[in-house]
Design brief:
Elements (H helix, E strand, L loop, with lengths): L6 E4 L7 H5 L6 E4 L9 H7 L4 E4 L14 H10 L7 H16 L4 H6 L21 H15 L10 H12 L1 H15 L2 E5 L5 H12 L3 E6 L2 H10 L9 E3 L7 H12 L6 H10 L1 H11 L4 E4 L5 H9 L11 E7 L5 E5 L9 H17 L5 E5 L10 H16 L4 E6 L1 H5 L1 H4 L13 E3 L3 H13 L4 E8 L5 E3 L6 H17 L1
Parallel strand pairs: 1-2, 2-3, 4-5, 4-7, 5-6, 7-14, 9-12, 10-11, 10-12
Antiparallel strand pairs: 8-9, 8-13
């Protein structure tokens, strides 16, 4: 009887014979581990077996087997619990953590490292890549837990989720800055509707939101189209993820009545309201939020920002007499967090609006654990030069004076003075006790340009803009948003729903 092995694994320089590979069982596993020259090249294997599953030690081929996936993270988990030994249970836990990661959706930064190719679990992606940022928390967490369960941990970790968050923050400034918000949302999960539910990035964001325990995602779209896209992405069945078809929803009559009441004195007929509910996914999603069928919504990937904002504004009211505006969160390479406003809506705001932006920016800063220091930004510094546009920012300071707000603020001042203590020292009367972290810009042009430049040239991570002002949570992402951007915005939306 001819022996037909399923797997060949070799870590020597011996030559593998094509005839032997050709005789192997269906879907053979070929691990050619010699480096830099494998025992047999993947191209040679494909010549005789196009069904082979191939791994090498090289980074320029799929399925790179590299000890960097194991040793650093096993040691990290073992050291953090002061393990007396590294036992088999800990090694198996590391292997299972890698296997679990391989089956999950792949982060955008990993795809980018591989020339933008879309990785999903299968023949050419059996194991996470060394570039995967999730490795730093997923594997040590599993190893540490196994050490505790097997009795070799001398310093057990009480809160494993917090431990994973601390590890993630070492690589990702976003994770570190937002960890407190993430934890609060997990403690009070929310239903968030993703208006563009047939888009690949949105589906991946919804899975991330659900898998991390933030709540229930609702995808708006055709069920068959969404499920087909899920299958193409290699994701598991959408258990725990809801799908809502705007055309077929049993709530459409109620949503139509809601929209018609809001728009009947703005020139709209009832059939106009019905058409918008049935055909405009942003309007439908906003109606879900207005009716309490969802706690918040996220959209923006397929439509211009202002178009999406207009759709939402048809349904959701502005709350508390404040304007709708946006705050962008900028996380710089040196670890600073800046809050820039208004980066979303208002082109040439008045002093009163600028004061509103200052209050909103201060609120967002405090929510992220920062004591706000607000600077009203201008090209001028405290009256020099004394030109009309600078006067608007100066007047905004006067508005804040009259409101008697409970945070530091001053202006008008240039960005250099606001951020550089040495320059600020030239103005000893300045009320700020340190560099500003909330920057109120004089207009939409300057705020948008500033945030984009910090991202594109300065290497900063920019989140948002985060919309404030609607009575119920709604957020609009940029059209170039990644799946992780959308998921983060969904969590921030859920946080807004929690704090009210």
């Amino acid at each position: 009887m001819l022996f037909m092995p399923l797997m060949i694994m070799n870590m020597t320089n011996a030559t593998m014979i094509k005839e032997m590979i050709a005789a192997m069982a269906p879907n053979p596993l070929i691990f050619a581990m010699a480096n830099p020259v494998p025992e047999i090249w993947p191209e040679e294997v494909r010549e005789v077996r196009d069904d082979a599953i191939i791994a090498t030690g090289r980074s320029d081929y799929p399925n790179q087997i590299n000890n960097v996936l194991g040793f650093p993270y096993i040691f990290r988990g073992a050291l953090d619990v002061r393990a007396s030994t590294i036992n088999e249970e800990m090694k198996i836990a590391a292997a299972k953590a890698l296997a679990d990661l391989a089956r999950q959706d792949v982060p955008d930064e990993v795809d980018a490292a591989y020339s933008g190719s879309r990785l999903s679990y299968g023949r050419d992606y059996l194991i996470p890549t060394p570039f995967d940022p999730r490795l730093i928390w997923a594997v040590p967490k599993a190893v540490a837990q196994a050490a505790m369960d097997s009795g070799v941990a001398q310093k057990p970790i009480a809160d494993m989720d917090a431990y994973a968050g601390e590890l993630a923050a070492r690589l990702d400034p976003t994770a570190g800055s937002l960890q407190a918000i993430f934890d609060k949302v997990k403690a009070s999960p929310k239903r968030i509707v993703f208006a563009e539910g047939e888009e690949e990035k949105v589906i991946r964001a919804a899975y991330s939101y659900f898998n991390q325990g933030y709540g229930t995602p609702i995808l708006v779209g055709r069920e068959d189209a969404i499920k087909a896209k899920i299958a193409d992405l290699g994701l598991p069945a959408p258990d725990g993820i809801e799908i809502a078809n705007a055309r077929l929803s049993a709530k459409n009559e109620a949503y139509t009545e809601t929209l018609y009441r809001k728009e009947q004195r703005r020139g709209a007929l009832r059939r106009d309201a019905q058409r918008r509910v049935n055909n405009n996914r942003n309007v439908f999603a906003a109606c879900m939020v207005e009716a309490g069928d969802a706690d918040g919504m996220v959209t923006g990937l397929t439509r211009h920002y202002m178009v999406s904002l207009k759709d939402i504004s048809r349904v959701l009211e502005v709350g508390g007499g404040k304007p709708v505006f946006g705050v962008s969160i900028v996380l710089t390479k040196d670890g600073r967090a800046l809050f820039i406003t208004d980066t979303a809506v208002n082109v040439a705001p008045s002093p009163d609006l600028l004061a509103d932006f200052a209050e909103g920016g201060a609120m967002v800063a405090r929510a992220m654990g920062h004591e706000p220091r607000v600077a009203m930004i201008s090209f001028a510094n405290f009256g020099n030069p004394d030109l009309p546009h600078a006067e608007t920012m100066r007047d905004a300071v006067g508005v804040l004076d009259r409101r008697d707000v409970a945070f530091e603020y001053d202006g008008e001042m240039s960005a250099g003075v606001a951020l550089n203590p040495d320059l600020m020292a030239n103005y000893p009367f300045c009320r700020l006790s340190g560099p500003a972290n909330v920057l109120v810009m004089p207009g939409l042009h300057s705020s948008r340009i500033s945030a984009r430049l910090l991202s594109a040239v300065g290497g900063a991570t920019v989140l948002g803009p985060i919309l404030l002002g609607f009575a119920k949570p709604a957020q609009v992402v940029q059209m170039d948003a990644s799946a992780s951007d959308i998921a983060t915005m969904a969590v921030l939306t859920a946080h807004q729903a929690n704090v009210g």
